[in-house]
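Lab notebook, bench 4. The sequencing result for the construct came back, and we need a structural model before the next group meeting so we can plan mutations. Quick request posted to the team channel:

Model the 3D structure of this chain.
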Amino acid sequence: MISKINIKNIGDLLSDIDISNDTREKINCIAINRDSINSQLSQPAYLNAIVAILVLSGSGEIQINYKSYQIEKETVILLTVSHLFRFISCTSDFQCLCLLVSKDFMEEMDATDMIYKRIKYGAILYNTPIVKLNKVNTLLLKNRILSVDKAIDKCDHFYYKEMILNSLFAFYLDLSNIIEKDTGLQDNSNLTRHENIIGLFIELLVANYRTEHKVDFYASRLNMTSHYLTLIVKRITGQTVNEFIFEMLYSESRNLLTHSRLSIQEIAALLNFSDQASFGKFFKRKSGVSPIEFRKRIP
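Done. Here's the predicted structure in token form:
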């Protein structure tokens, strides 16, 4: 039986971290070990972010779009919003740096250059999300990620956002150079039609879930019937389209209740519920507690 699939926002991975900087909910750098993997990344999930996981030590096994990969130190794992993944196992000495960039923040790089699209959308990375590095390139990418991390902390910098974007852009330039020059990977992707539809659906969902809660919307945008979309999604993932939509809404609800100062009424409006009562019923059905009770339990 297929495990339940979750959709996580960056904020979901920060539940045990004291966030004093709101920017870190949009872009963040996190050190990950076996304990954090077991608690956060052992169940199948789509992450609502562009992710680069740089493995620094240890080894393990990761499943991406139902295909298993062995990973070890000096490896980078590159995930988009349409990659379903989970860690199956890792050694006790497993350590990695994780760079997470939300879709909204990533799109701010558009005005700078379009090079990142080769990272974000390239089919080469969809089918080959694991890239083996050497020691020099591992150290280079590690330093680039740490540079992004330092830039996020410089909240009082007059050109704060530009500093973050420039450090992020430098990371993607080096990553692109490594992929194109040193790995010899070729764009030989051969996605099946159903795999392609799943990827397009997830990207469409990430862009529209706050305002569009009906299967008909996603099916029409993909030029197919609701029945056909539901059939494909169920066949490939084991879950329905509605389950994906509701999981996305529930994930964002938890994130907003935990990390924002918005009132419950404002959250209901932001997520396009008809009123606060309907949002409350939805949230309690998913969590077992009301939004008010959930917020009271937050440390």
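Confidence is low (pLDDT under 50) at residues 111-121.
Will bring this to the meeting.
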